[in-house]
Description:
Strand content of chain B: 15-25%
Largest sheet of chain A: 4 strands, antiparallel
Shape of chain A: globular
Shape of chain B: globular
Distance between the termini of chain B: 90 Å
Low-confidence stretches of chain B: 8-31, 128-142, 602-620
Number of strands of chain B: 28
Number of strands of chain A: 4
Oligomer: heterodimer
Radius of gyration of chain B: 27 Å
Mean pLDDT of chain A: 87
Number of helices of chain A: 5
Structural class of chain A: alpha+beta
Amino acid sequence: xxxxxxxxxxxxxxILLPAAGCNRGNSSPKELLxxxxxxxxxxxxxxxYDCYYALYKDKVSEDEYIRHRRxxxxxxxxxxxxxxxxxxxxxxxxxxxxxxxxxLDRKEPxxxxxxxxxxxxxxxxxxxxx
Amino acid sequence: xxxxxxISTLILLFLLMQGAVFAEPHHSxxxxxxxxxxVTVFTIPGTYSSLTVPITAFGATDNVGVTGYIVTQxxxxxxxxxxxxxxxxxxxxxFSSEGTKTLYAWARDAAGNVSTSKSATxxxxxxxxxxxxxxxxxxxxxxxxxxxxxxxxxxxxxxxISGAVVSDGTNSATTDNTGAYTxxxxxxxxxxxxxxxxxxTTAQVTTVMSGSGSTVDWALTKSYGNQTVPASNMSYVILxxxxxGMHCDQNDYSxxxxxxxxxxxxxxxxxxxxxxxxxxxxxxxxxxSFPKKTNSALHTNFWSYAPQFGWDVPTNVxxxxxxxxxxxxxxxxxxxxxxxxxxxxxxxxxGTWDPYGTAVITxxxxxxxxxxxxxxxxxxxxxxxxSNCHGTxxxxxxxxxxxxxxxGTNLVxxxxxxxxxxxxxxxxxxxxxxxxKAGVESLSLAxxxxxxxxxxxxxxxxxxxxxxxxxxxxxxTQCLRGIMxxxxxxxxxxxxxxxxxxxxxxxxxxxxxxxxQCGGCHDASHAENSxxxxxxxxxxxxxxxxxxxxxCEACHNGAHAEYTTANPADTTITRKFQGDNYWIWxxxxxxxxxxxxxxxSGGFSSSGSxxxxxxxxxxx
Lengths: 130, 620
């Protein structure tokens, strides 16, 4: 039993990890941003979807989000350049680098700074769209 | 043999010089003919009692020959390739509603020259057999009556409302505990009103036909609240809107182009005050920007193909030269600041699919001081579900293949060689002002006519409700989300079904230019300006000096997203300045110390802040 116990712990961890997404661990705006953009880089758009606040999820289902997100450019890298928190709201500016795209006839990566708004919802930080 | 060749060569050269070879005879004539036909006579009765009005005389002459006749309700000159031209002069015209109407008669020749018009006016009053006609008809003393029946519900909860009073101006009925009512009236036209304590009194126009019942359902909106109007602490108010509830866009332009990125924002700016509150059309700059949509080219390939489509515009500049952010300019009426054709997409810069992107409108004085800001949504969606029928592998290629097979085009080959076409190259499209090619159906006609019997082709298409959302955005985007949709009205209630749309275009309706009229269902005081679309109409029956200054959409929002909509993203303006998500109804949004007055003539005075009961307070 003693030999099996560590294996069970590791197995449980491996099972829970993918399901966690943005539902767990986004206890700060920075943590949320890291999960939001890392999942996008990994094209794990289901986890990216988890990062949005309820109002967005009310309007856009996960399947719909994933379908449309795949039509947009693939993210390659990100860097948080500004982050500010005021109570239950936070704002960030993030340098994003998108991959080359055959569809867009883009042969080189392209970078841009985007603005992100965040809101604390049920104790968890979420991406605010509107 | 040599002689024969020589003679043949001479004949060929002669014919070439005459332009008779390699060109159809009429074509060569066309090049020389620049003289337009003349409509010599056009008459209709001055008054008539049916929607089908006879054309008593329509004649035209031309130096070569008249080849087409058309009658329109618009004074705008139709293109020679427009739908609705007939080889012989039409003998009648079918209107959609009664009232005073003007028709314009035109003629064209083979060279595509279109005449100037002759116009004539008719006043249509529908005959109400056995009863009086017109709004609020009192019913007749002769002839049989027909039932007007329906159910009254709460617009938000859908719960039936008992005890509501439905009146035709003379007779009234009270809804029972199922929300149902029945009125018996002679044939005629009626403006019905429904009142219930705690709800706004609402009006609808209906026509009762002899011998057949009429169903008029209601969805009542709760009375206005009594909140303090946030604008009362402000000096300036911005009423801003997107001209349509939704703009269609494409994810990929590499196969064909239907519509380019093109949103249009308007903003009317008011200086608050007492009686002196005023519309500001000078001395300020009004700018727009999308904080989360600063670079459309990150996620769309439109600008890679725009030159092929005829728009050689820089990246992130729209087809009218409008950038993705910038200053707005006064519109042609000098009333509204506008930015026409902003090239945004449904994608935020970070890749979020966001069909309800928000623009920030900023008003500054001449010194650069910010006077006011407001957020306004600019809806745009790529949710055209071609894949429901054309497959998910490559629906665009499937469309081109089918088009080639059906119409003998070479679109697939062209696309393979890098040549991509706009649909409007051949199919005229009034949305883009593209004339198309003569003899080819307009895009609106071609799409609705060809697809009208194909909405059940696949389970995905058949399960899409309404079926319009198979092509128009869409099941998730919800283009149709305004108060009329919440009241249960469908696309077809205003536009007709696909058969009706097809028939109306074939009967001469010009898509995008002649669209459903609010006045067709609402009372006259809430109708558009004469011969004017809702989006171009202004308030003309307002108290005192407000008339002719405020766009309908400034207070009621764009078509399909009329306040109060089902999407909170739409109501940023009303929440900021009025403190609720209703249409702009409170006089104190702009006026200090102003008692509440009816915004539209014909409405009753509203108690506004405390709700209304029993005949008080139209939803002005």
